[in-house]
Amino acid sequence: MNKAMQRVNLPGLAVIAICAGLWELYCRTLGSGFDSIASTYATILAVKDLLLQGPLLEQLLHTTSVAIWAWLIASALGFVIGLCLGLSRTAWTYTMASIEVLRSIPSISFLSIAVLLFGFSAKTEMVIVVYVSLWPMLLGTLGGMRSTPGGLLEVARIFHLSAISTFFKIILPAALPVIVVGLRLSLTLSIALAVVAEMIGNPEGLGFGIVSAQQAMRPADAFAYLLVIGILGWGLNAIFAMATHRLDFAYGRPS
Amino acid sequence: MKAAPKHQGETPARANSDSAPIRGLLPLALGLVVWQILAPPNSPYFPPPSEWVRALEALAKAGRLWPAVATTLMHFALALLIDILLGSALGIVLGRSRTLDRLLGPLLEFGRTMPAGALVPVAVLIMGYTSSMTLAVVVLTSFWPILLNTRAGASSISQDRLDAARALHLSWWATQQKILLPSVVPSIRLGTQIAAPITLIIVLLVEILTQVSGVGRQIALSQSMFRSANVYGLVALTGCFGLAVNWLIGGIGRLTHKYDPAFSDGVASH
Amino acid sequence: MKNAGIGAETILASDRAKNPMPGNRSDGELTFRCRALSIDVGHPQRRIIEGLNLEVPEHQFVCILGESGVGKTTLLRVFGGLTPPAPGSQLELNGRRVIGPPQGAVFVFQNYTASLLPWRTARRNVELGLEASVAAPERRARALAALDLVGLHDRAEDYPWQLSGGMQQRVQIARALAVEPKLLLMDEPFGALDAMTRENLQTELRKIQRQLGATVIFITHDVDEAVFLADRLIVLKGKPASVGLDVMTDLPAERDQVTTKELPRFLELRHLIYQAVRREGA
Fold first, then answer.
1. Contact B4 C83 (CB under 8 A)
2. Measured between beta carbons, which residues in chain B are less than 8 angstroms from residue A117?
3. C138 partner at 20 to 30 Å CA-CA among A49, A188, A222, C58?
């Protein structure tokens, strides 16, 4: 029990609570003149209202499901492409430079192209999120496949492992840490892009919610959405970290 | 401990450090050529590359291109600079003080995982459509890699070096200058290399969302007016920015080469 | 290190000769042989080994010595089929040409950390060579037996990062032993270990080799280690290198870290080697 308590970092959480309290104080005193900010209490009230009487819940579900589906599709695509390029020297030679150029284009620019081509819709949102999120996974998989330590490959040779065995027992496991990093980055991008796409490309979800609140000059609602989005990002990241914790242990990086 | 012998791993296999051969540009070049040939010049959705160039020229003539480029690049440069200063300062403080690190941990974790665009509406409410709003959002979203890497570097300065400083009776300031800074420079550099492309993306993101100024604004305007050739041309332009940033990253690596010791753990923090 | 129980020996060495006679040439197929072996390395190519002739009969423990950089590791890698020799070289194991790592031979690398799979436990690392040919239950038993031989039976479920350098190297050796190789090629396996661990492992290695009847070609730059372990000593010398000294140790089969090293023959051999290495220091 003690160890679990230690892991929870109570002092850190206390700091957050203190900051929330200080913000509340500020809003009631020095900041009371500004009508574009919302106090902690007002924010929490707004969350409650939006949740119970407003569209917050369905917006949350929409953004979450888009982010997760897009992440899964993007990861699968990125993995497969990365795998092919990693395994086939010819494919790599004849496409890598193009990939380097394409990936230099800031991903956000494609959002505008997607809106141009597909208009404002859920399809736009999915397409853009998948496109942007597949890059970290692609590059991670590719990088992982191409950087198998030579020593381990020699071990495969001395034990006469077949090509397939070498792939599944050595190349793939060696690449796993990098691939997991790619997965995490993809997830981060999926969430961020889903929200952004909803701000411009698709009038649904949390992104749409926060932009509406801003345009209607309702700071409490805007802060409420910001809080919920932040928790979504934080939550999904935390789940991912817990899921991959075991992997850290096996690979020698216990935390 | 002996160093690893040079022979093991001679089996030539996978060298990640090979740079991509130029022939790899073939698909891209081919794609552009095919596009150019097949697309009619007035195609609403897929104008050929020649139209993109024309569109950019027109924008330039109308005096809207270069000021936008200048604004975007200026936002980028300023933001990156602040990223480095803020990220490294905070990173060093957190790296050297376990207490502070633990106290601020959850707060920073929340900030780090905050999806990038979400800050924009709130920032607009508070600061309005200004350059400082843009800078604030960009910095708060993109300085994290520098913070994390610097923190990792600062917290893993070898005790030997610190002991050496004490044995030599170096003053606090001298220790910071001669031991701490050189040790964290590789981390700051690595963080900067990761943060730079992110900074560019967020600058464009803010410009697209808020349409205040810059290339992002032009892209958003063109898109809302269905000027597809403009959009593609501007996107290609941002691609050039991206390539320039990559080149910059490589350059940073070469410039700070002298600070390259063996760093204990070459793994970057995102 | 604990001595292995009967079970371990039975599982691994059931049909091996228990008392090999070093130096005797058997008619058997288990002979390692090279003729006119030359090796080129580097860009531009530089000949580091010239016209080497060597025959190693079965069950013999050969130690190869030489100054740093003379080419010992490269030579062993060529023997192990990891690096190709120069054209015109002849290299055979059991009468079959060596092209790529030969069946029946296992290489033990100097850098043990780079040779173990970090994501597998010690036992699963040891099982690696057995996975293609042996079913799971027997494989597990053989892996545990091999780990027992090197004294790591109770660390079988630990990951490499949880083990010390000496233990990691022992895991690598156990992995090599688990496949019951006829030929063991060892590249300065104890070089990065502390003196006590090294001496323990040397003693154990000789015992294991005699139990299993394996042929061993062992590279080291440590003269005492070489003389202690070997039935036969070879010194590489020259630029390009060739055999400078080739001598049978004629030391008793049972060896001890203290008493063996006090024998006159031991000192004589040391002397011979130092002379051979230092003369014409290139």
1. no
2. 45
3. C58
CB A43 within 8 A of CB A19: no
Q: Print the SS3 string covering A192-246.
A: HHHHHHHHHCCCCHHHHHHHHHHHCCCHHHHHHHHHHHHHHHHHHHHHHHHHCHH
CA–CA distance, C252 with C247 (Å, rounded to integer) = 15
Residues on chain A touching B270 (C-beta within 8 angstroms): 181, 184-185
- For residue C30, the model assigns a pLDDT of 60
User: Taking CB atoms and an 8 Å limit, are C82 and B10 in contact across chains?
Assistant: yes
As a whole number of angstroms, the distance between CA C182 and CA C32 comes to: 10
Contact C193, C169 (CB under 8 A): yes
Could you tell me which residues are beta bridge partners of residue C234? C64, C246
At A182, is the pLDDT very low, low, confident or very high (cuts 50, 70, 90)? very high
A186 Cβ contact partners less than 8 Å away, ≥ 6 residues apart: A71, A74, A75, A78, A133, A134, A136, A137
- What mean pLDDT, rounded, does chain B reach? 85
Facing residues of A37 across strands? none
> How remote is the C-alpha of C174 from its chain's centroid?
12
B8 at the C interface (CB within 8 A)? yes
pLDDT digits (tens, 9 = 90+) for B29-42: 999 999 888 888 87
Burial of residue B75 (CB within 10 Å: 0-12, 13-18, 19+) is buried
Contacts of C129 in chain A (CB under 8 A): 159
Residue A208 CB contacts under 8 Å (≥ 6 apart), including other chains: A59, A198, A199, A202
Smallest Cα distance from C42 to chain B, Å: 12
- Which segments in chain B show pLDDT lower than 70? 1-18, 257-270
Contacts of C180 (CB under 8 A, 6+ apart): C12, C13, C212
For chain A, the average pLDDT equals 88
pLDDT score, position C173: 93
* Pairwise CB contact (< 8 Å): A112 & B102: no
| Residue B171 half-sphere exposure toward CB, CA atoms < 13 A | 2
DSSP type of residue C21? -
Tokens 């070898």 correspond to B158
Specify the pLDDT at position C25.
43
In this predicted structure, what is the pLDDT of residue A253?
59
Average pLDDT for residues A13-20, to the nearest whole number? Answer: 89
DSSP letter, residue A167: I
Residue of B nearest to A10 (CA): B103
SS (H, E, C) B2-21: CCCCCCCCCCCCCCCCCCCC
Q: Supply the pLDDT for residue A88.
A: 87
E strand segments, chain B: none
